[in-house]
């Protein structure tokens, strides 16, 4: 075995946490690098194991040889040492060979592994990354109405059967429950502690004991007002550990509160009973909702699940697919673009095959080294800041960096007919675990007069959004006000106006990026501004134009 000090260093390295906020969980694209880092570490660890095994094999052979020799020698010590060669070899062994063996045993075989680990650990995720990934799983659970068993086994909708997935262990479920508990999220604490308990009851071996799980479970259920269930779990805990101090205290308290509750229920009249039942139903419906839950959130989640508003046949009949040459633009007369109506009001148009695979890969290649946590405009300060409701990383690409970027910008101008010289740079975004962007407007509202003041190009008149990957499950762009949902399709782009021809904001364009359930979502977008469009999209007071 390696010396004790070596393992202390090894464990210190393994659990080293950088103080820097790396936000790995916000970009699947950057997380792929971690897989290669881990693969390199595993190779290094195997080399270390082989070195240790080789050393132990040498020690083992030495021990076996001496075991046979000493067994023979001690049968007749004087006779054995009476032979001068045996006497010489004994002196040599004790003076030289045992010293060499000592050096071999003390030789540290972990230097290469520890050195590699020390170099790589600066790129390790930290506590914030682990917590962010855990909360992302819970967000996916709520948005797509998944039960803990489905998540634990990895059998998610859209999962590629060719992709290897290791099921979640009791420790994994317990860790999710603990993270929820530390956030006073007792709803998810209950769900994940119950899953951990279920897997333990199913015979799975774990370093987490059942008493600890039951302790968390009973308290989280109590915090949600379910006294009887909390009491049942407490009794089950005490059967396993009758001396558990907190559980014994909780048992008395829960029994007292339950008796008190039943007494009140027995004395109350019909109206009070109806009121209490109504409050119970309302509490049950709200269970699991965050404190800041708004009606829009419910609509947003429904749209993400594909439960959007269905157009009437009459409205649907006005939606078309067509070949567009953008008013006989020279580039598109012989090779028109494929245009599809996604929605009528606001008018959302999808353009198919606007980016080739090689262009997409080039854009990703340029963006990946520069991906940083995506920011939003703070209406209070007017500055950019990160937000929990936008989980992705983004990078900005300028036209002069690469001919491909310049070509994409020109293509956007040719297809839309709008001037992109005053537009913002091409933004590339990659979504992380459960990556999303909750409902928002792209344009600056009247209560945000300084939103784009520093650009000097007016408000965002239109949005051009390119899907650079297919997403097996989740990841739709949804418009919460009108009930529209647009699903990612690699190489296509969607376009809509954020402002009416009058310059007023179109509030029906409020939209969101749904959490990515399975897959890796890459998008790029171009926010086109008002300046430069004066003769391309003329102003009018008629908002229906």
Automatic annotation (TrEMBL):
Keywords of the record, alphabetical order, are: Dioxygenase, Endoplasmic reticulum, Glycoprotein, Iron, Metal-binding, Oxidoreductase, Signal, TPR repeat, Vitamin C
Residue ranges for the region (Disordered) are: 265-292
Name of the top EC class for this enzyme: oxidoreductase
Task: Report the subcellular localization.
Answer: Endoplasmic reticulum lumen
**Mind telling me which PROSITE patterns this protein's record contains?**
FE2OG_OXY
| InterPro entries with a match to the protein in the record | Oxoglu/Fe-dep_dioxygenase_dom (IPR005123), P4H_N (IPR013547), P4HA-like (IPR045054), Pro_4_hyd_alph (IPR006620), Pro_4_hyd_alph_FE2OG_OXY (IPR044862), TPR-like_helical_dom_sf (IPR011990), TPR_P4H (IPR059068)
Annotated Gene Ontology MF terms?
iron ion binding; L-ascorbic acid binding; procollagen-proline 4-dioxygenase activity
Q: Where is the Fe2OG dioxygenase domain?
A: 422-530
Example of a GO cellular component annotation carried by this entry: endoplasmic reticulum lumen
Please give the chief subcellular localization of this protein. Answer: endoplasmic reticulum
Organism domain of life: Eukaryota
Function field: Catalyzes the post-translational formation of 4-hydroxyproline in -Xaa-Pro-Gly- sequences in collagens and other proteins.
Q: What is this protein called?
A: procollagen-proline 4-dioxygenase
